[in-house]
Amino acid sequence: MASAPPDSSRPVFRFAPSPNGRLHLGHALSALTNEALARRFGGRLLLRIEDIDLTRCRPEFVEGIETDLGWLGIGFEPGFRRQSAHFDDYAGALASLRQRGLIYPCFCSRQEIRNAVVAREAVTGRPWPVDPDGAPLYPNLCKVLGPDEAERRIAAGEPHVLRLDMAAAIAAAGGSLGYTVFDADDVRHVVQIAPERWGDVVLARKDVPTSYHLAVTVDDALQGVTHVVRGRDLEAATDVHVLLQHLLGLPTPLYHFHRLLLDDDGQKLAKSRDSQSLAALRNDGVTAADIRRQLGFA
Prior knowledge:
The chain is built from ten helices and ten strands. By secondary structure, it is α/β, with parallel strands linked by helices. It has two domains: 122 residues, HUPs (Rossmann fold, 3-Layer(aba) Sandwich), CATH 3.40.50; 173 residues, HUPs (Rossmann fold), CATH 3.40.50.
C-alpha cells in the first residue's frame, strides 16, 4: 500500500551538510536548531546532502553524516536528496537565465583576476572592492567579449565559468527585494537585499556544473522548504539566493540565522581548520546527551 503524501500544510525545514569532511559541533548546533524549530512550529525536517563538488565529497563522509546525525537522535524524515543526482535541475535553471541574457562565460584564471585587480588599484590609488566573504569583486574582464568570440573559445575547450550579470539580473528582477526573518517565537521582520555587493557571482563551472548559490536555491524550491535555518555566516549570501528566486519564479522561504560556535582563536569552527569532529568526541566518550546539553538543547 502506498504511503500517504507529505502534509503540504506543514512547514518544511532542512539541514544540508556537505560530505567533504566529518561533522563538528557547529554542524550539531545547526542540525539541533533545525530540529528544535521544526518541532516548535509543527514542521517536517529534511536532510539534504550537498555534494556538488565531486572531487572533495566522498562516500565515507556521507556515511559519517548519517552516523553522526543518527547518534544525535535527530528525527529527520526517511531518505535524503543528494545534489549530485540532480544536475539536470540546475542545468534547467541555468538555461532559463541564459535565455534571458543574464549569464555569460568567463575564461579568467584566478591569477588573471588578481593581476587585473592589482593593476586597477595602482591606477586609482584605492583598494579594489571585495564581496562579503572578502574576495575581490570580479573586474568584468570577460563581460565585454562578443558572443562569437565566447562561443569560439568554448568550442575550443577553454576552461570557463558561468557568471551572473549582476546589474542585468537586478534590473530584470525589478524594484526593491527583500525576505522575512523569523525567530523562535515567530516574530518576523523584513530585510532588504543588496546583491550588488557580491558582483558577478559564479553560478557554474566546467568541472562542477552548478554552484552553491544556484543549487541551494533550486533545491529549496523543489523540496518545498518554507523555513531556512542556517548560520549567520550565510546571511549575506541570502541576497544572491533571493535574487535568483525572483529571476527563476521560485518562492522565497522564511529565514533564521543562528549563532556560530568559535574556537579559542575566535574563528568559526570549520572542517578546513580541523575542528574536532563529532566522531572524535564520541570516541572520547562524549554522549549525545552531553552534546545536547552543551549546545543548549537538553
